[in-house]
């Protein structure tokens, strides 16, 4: 089963910025959803497991089911948050995290499991997984970004298009994406775009989110 089968909207994937104080961040997320963010990924590399668990629970209370919430990297925290009764929809995993198949088994068939992929070998590994293991791939970076200083070489739109064309999984473009990139990325096969600082660092997160959603309102994924 894929994200398309469950009809999750990947158009605007908000990835949170752990450089922002969490008390401020929850307000940013709330306003970004109002502006059109369709899924939220809580990414916090600095928090302890206990701190992250508390933040996941607090964030899901604010989101209140309006859009799916996934947690970056930490499958253990997702499981603990679900055990505490929080509405956490899934996890986004990197190449060095718990294998996606293990996450799928532990979270169940209805959870969202995303995976970072930025080279052909990653696509080959995704294709070798049983059908239904992954819901989407996060593909990037599109352009150099200060959000993740250790990012791989930038793909550009053409590089993204080549990777997206090589997989049947929905691909979300991430890394230095601006509103003007939305239409060409969608034409290149993107199911949506993922944004960090362009929304989290904006004076008006709702307006920033809206600028991405309206950048290509009629854009369709072309394959």
Automatic annotation (TrEMBL):
Stretches assigned to the Thiamine phosphate synthase/TenI domain: 12-199
Chain positions recorded as 2-[(2R,5Z)-2-carboxy-4-methylthiazol-5(2H)-ylidene]ethyl phosphate binding sites: 145-147, 176, 196-197
Reactions that this protein is recorded to catalyse: 4-methyl-5-(2-phosphooxyethyl)-thiazole + 4-amino-2-methyl-5-(diphosphooxymethyl)pyrimidine + H(+) = thiamine phosphate + diphosphate; 2-(2-carboxy-4-methylthiazol-5-yl)ethyl phosphate + 4-amino-2-methyl-5-(diphosphooxymethyl)pyrimidine + 2 H(+) = thiamine phosphate + CO2 + diphosphate; 2-[(2R,5Z)-2-carboxy-4-methylthiazol-5(2H)-ylidene]ethyl phosphate + 4-amino-2-methyl-5-(diphosphooxymethyl)pyrimidine + 2 H(+) = thiamine phosphate + CO2 + diphosphate
Cofactors (names): Mg(2+)
EC class: transferase
Annotated EC: 2.5.1.3
Binding residues annotated for Mg(2+), in chain numbering: 73, 97
GO molecular function, a single term: magnesium ion binding
Family: Belongs to the thiamine-phosphate synthase family.
Function: Condenses 4-methyl-5-(beta-hydroxyethyl)thiazole monophosphate (THZ-P) and 2-methyl-4-amino-5-hydroxymethyl pyrimidine pyrophosphate (HMP-PP) to form thiamine monophosphate (TMP).
Name of the featured protein: Thiamine-phosphate synthase
Organism encoding this protein: Microbacterium radiodurans
Gene: thiE
């Amino acid at each position: 089963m894929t994200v398309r089968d469950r009809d999750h909207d990947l158009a605007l994937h908000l990835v949170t910025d752990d450089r922002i104080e969490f008390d401020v961040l929850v307000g940013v997320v709330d306003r970004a959803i109002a502006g059109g963010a369709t899924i939220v990924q809580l990414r916090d590399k600095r928090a302890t497991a206990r701190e992250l668990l508390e933040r996941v629970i607090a964030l899901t209370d604010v989101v209140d089911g309006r859009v799916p919430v996934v947690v970056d990297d930490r499958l253990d925290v997702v499981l603990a948050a679900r055990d505490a009764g929080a509405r956490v929809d899934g996890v986004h995993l990197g190449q060095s995290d718990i294998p996606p198949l293990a996450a799928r088994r532990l979270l169940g068939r209805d959870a969202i499991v995303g995976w970072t992929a930025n080279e052909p070998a990653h696509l080959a590994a995704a294709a070798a997984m049983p059908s239904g293991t992954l819901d989407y791939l996060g593909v990037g970076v599109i352009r150099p970004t200060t959000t993740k200083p250790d990012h791989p070489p930038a793909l550009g739109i053409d590089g993204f298009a080549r990777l997206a064309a090589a997989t049947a999984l929905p691909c979300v473009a991430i890394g230095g994406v601006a509103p003007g990139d939305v239409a060409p990325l969608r034409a290149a096969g993107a199911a949506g775009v993922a944004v960090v600082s362009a929304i989290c660092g904006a004076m008006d997160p709702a307006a920033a989110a809206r600028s991405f959603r309206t950048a290509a309102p009629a854009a369709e994924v072309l394959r």
